[in-house]
Amino acid sequence: MARQGTDKSLGTRIRAARVAAEKSLRGFASEMELSPSYMNDIEYNRRVPSDDVLRRLADRLDLNLDELLAAAGRVGIAKEAEQYIRETPRAGMLFRRVARDRLTDEQLKTLLEQVDRMRDGDTER
């Protein structure tokens, strides 16, 4: 299960996960095929990585990609999700309603938890 970040800063989340994984900046940058200076810029919020780099970071550091994309200020709608919204009218309705009603962060958290329970077949709660 991907780790949940508590700090809103993209760079801080990535840096904390790298340190927790006991990886040096230089070693991890090499593993990611990035320059150490670019990795340092990401960790100190001087540069925002591409979606591809965010995906690789999430995978290598066991971080939640959706949270990284949100912290980077991106909607992060993958082509598959966009296609699903086009093919499933209710999914589009849900997305538009959430946007229109401006749910609070706590409400969104509750909604996501409910979605996870539905996906896992636990609709009792």
Automatic annotation (TrEMBL):
Coiled-coil zones:
none
Domain of life here? Bacteria
MF (Gene Ontology)? DNA binding; DNA-binding transcription factor activity
Instruction: List the GO cellular component terms.
Output: cytosol
SUPFAM superfamilies, per the entry: lambda repressor-like DNA-binding domains
Q: Which InterPro entries match?
A: Cro/C1-type_HTH, Lambda_DNA-bd_dom_sf, TransReg_Diox_bact_type
PANTHER family membership: HTH-TYPE TRANSCRIPTIONAL REGULATOR (PTHR46797), METHYLPHOSPHONATE SYNTHASE (PTHR46797:SF1)
| Protein's name according to its UniProt entry | Uncharacterized protein
